[in-house]
Write a structure and sequence with these properties.
Radius of gyration: 25 Å
Number of helices: 26
Strand content: 5-15%
Shape: globular
Largest sheet: 5 strands, mixed
Strand order of the largest sheet: 12-11-15-13-14
Structural class: alpha/beta
């Protein structure tokens, strides 16, 4: 038998010890110099990976492969770690060696339901026929401006109620940056009594226990979709061991939703004060605000106003970190958002443990939606009964409905909780267009299901829609109609939404990854295999890790349940 060769392990150890660069590809010196210049004196931490990727993308219009290798070296990460994050998010363009860089300007045309009904397919076709030099035109998911459909985004500049001529003009003039929103600034907010309630809290004129009790009495629930009682959440996180952190979700990627942007563009400090009051009541050491990348004007606004707040604080405050999303609907899910803040792919975590116990950086975390925090100051100053006294049909509170589709006056409508769709459209939206008749509506965005006109008198609130296979979520209402010339078929809406879910599935779990793809393929046919669709729906609901896969079947299930006549051929 041949004996194994003798290996001199001392020489191997010496070679290992002498390695001066990470194992793998060596960074190109020119790319490394550019990356270092772009990063400047920013910390080289792994949780800032997405922020650093944005710096490179903004500077080059893409992420060249040599720059990814250089960034990995700077952050002391494996190149594969950087690459897997860069390729996960829609807004990053990874360019491999030998590939051509993308055109200088990207025009994104929203293709989701409200924009589709407003003519997005025709707009997309018209733009593709134009001879626009060094421009690419792509269809994208909802960009959060559904009340101004159809919408195109030239670079970062949104073009509301877009036409091909308006988009072409913006491209030729290189109007690619969003104009900052004209909101109430820090000085004006302070003059109007802003941050007085926060100062009362921090100075001891209010106690955390009494503040939480007032919030509980107001019946304020999480307004991002889940509807968990806000005061109870504060109490749960406060009971966890310090240090505690806070994560604020302004990702707002649910198609049909734009309420957070609406309020942020007008009164950002009302939100910031509510956020700081929550941080004080819970005993938070640091706050992380996660803002969707489509809201470039809001990001510039928040950067400016947070800087003004920090320069002249009304009282002691925890640090506030503004983090930028990169185009991933899944990051609206709280644990996926936390993964993204930590510089990773936005993949939901298995639970338990819940983020209130083990959240951001492994610490107990208070996670809140923007609008929930927006109402905190008003509730504390006006009293909990002010908020709770609003409502109809036995419900309590106010709701900000993002209304789009075929109504005369779309937009954010602040209305009593429990209002019906018919009341909302007639009293707040100017009714339906001339010659149109209500056909169907979506009460809670893409994932909230579709109901027929015959069910337009159900109170719109948490817990009222579940018996009908729907939910209110973030209160994104999309209205479908019929007239002498058209019908907004529910099955066409379901196809549009299922394509969205297939594109936005993070791919982590098979029921969602395969289920959305299989369902989308099945419903493309005019003849639906309803038995197979029902089986797929049940598997997705039972076995998907997060709410995306669990709710994705809702539009299809509603078509089968409420619109069987559309399936008859």
């Amino acid at each position: 038998m041949t004996r194994p060769a003798v290996v001199d392990t001392s020489r191997l150890s010496a070679r290992r010890g002498s390695r001066s660069t990470p194992k793998g590809r060596v960074a190109d010196p020119a790319a490394l110099a550019e990356v270092r210049a772009l990063l400047g004196d920013a910390p080289r931490r792994a949780d800032l990976l997405i922020e650093h990727l944005h710096r490179i993308q903004d500077a080059h219009g893409c992420l060249p492969a040599p720059h990814l290798v250089a960034l990995a070296q700077e952050l002391k990460l494996a190149t594969t770690e950087v690459y897997e994050v860069a390729t996960f998010y829609h807004h990053f363009d990874v360019v491999k060696e030998g590939e051509a860089r993308p055109p200088a300007v990207t025009v994104r045309v929203c293709e989701t339901l409200s924009c589709r009904m407003a003519g997005a397919p025709a707009l997309l076709s018209a733009l593709e026929r134009l001879d626009l030099k060094d421009v690419r035109v792509v269809g994208v998911p909802c960009v959060g401006r559904c009340d101004r459909a159809p919408v195109a985004v030239v670079g970062r500049n949104p073009i509301d109620r877009a036409t091909a001529d308006a988009v072409a003009s913006a491209v030729r003039e290189r109007r690619t940056d969003a104009l900052p929103a004209q909101a109430i600034d820090y000085a004006a907010y302070r003059r109007d009594g802003g941050y007085r309630t926060l100062a009362d809290c921090v100075s001891g004129r209010r106690t955390a226990d009494s503040t939480i009790a007032e919030l509980e009495s107001s019946s304020l629930r999480g307004l991002g979709g889940a509807g968990f009682p806000a005061g109870r959440k504060w109490k749960i996180v406060r009971a966890e061991p310090a240090p505690r952190l806070m994560a604020v979700n302004i990702d707002e990627g649910e198609p049909g939703t734009f309420k957070d942007r609406h309020y942020l563009e007008r009164d950002p400090h009302r939100f910031l004060e509510g956020m700081l009051i929550a941080a004080w009541a819970v005993g938070v050491d640091a706050i992380y605000v996660y803002l969707r990348d489509e809201y470039a004007a809001c990001r510039a606004l928040l950067e400016r106003e947070i800087a003004a707040l920090v320069r002249d604080p009304p009282c002691a405050m925890p640090p506030i970190h503004l983090r930028r999303g990169a185009g991933a609907y899944i990051c609206g899910e709280e644990s996926a958002m936390i993964e993204s803040i930590e510089g990773k792919r936005g993949m939901p975590r298995l639970r338990p443990p819940y983020v209130a116990q083990v959240g951001l950086f492994g610490r107990p975390t208070l996670e809140h939606n923007f609008e929930t925090l927006y109402w905190v100051r008003d509730i504390l100053e006006r009293g909990p009964q002010w908020f709770a006294s609003n409502g109809r049909h036995g419900r309590k509170g106010l709701r900000s409905f993002s209304v789009s589709g075929r109504v005369r006056e779309p937009g954010v409508k602040l209305a009593p909780a429990g209002i019906t769709l018919r009341e909302l459209v007639d009293e707040y939206c100017g009714g339906l267009p001339e010659g149109h008749e209500l056909y169907a509506y979506l009460p809670g965005g893409a994932s909230g299901g579709i109901l027929p006109a015959s069910m337009a008198d159900i109170p719109l609130d948490f817990d009222t829609l579940q018996p009908h296979g729907c939910f209110i979520g973030s209160a994104a209402v999309m209205v479908l109609t019929k007239s002498a010339h058209h019908v907004d078929r529910a099955m066409d809406a379901a196809r549009n939404l299922m394509r969205f879910f297939e594109d936005e599935s993070c791919g982590q779990c098979t029921p969602c990854r395969a289920g959305t793809a299989k369902t989308r393929a099945l419903i493309e046919s005019e003849q639906w295999d309803t038995a197979l669709l029902a089986e797929l729906s049940q598997v997705m609901r039972d076995a998907s890790i997060c709410g995306l896969g669990q709710a994705a079947p809702n539009p299809v299930d509603c078509v089968v349940r409420y619109f069987p006549h559309e399936l008859e051929r």
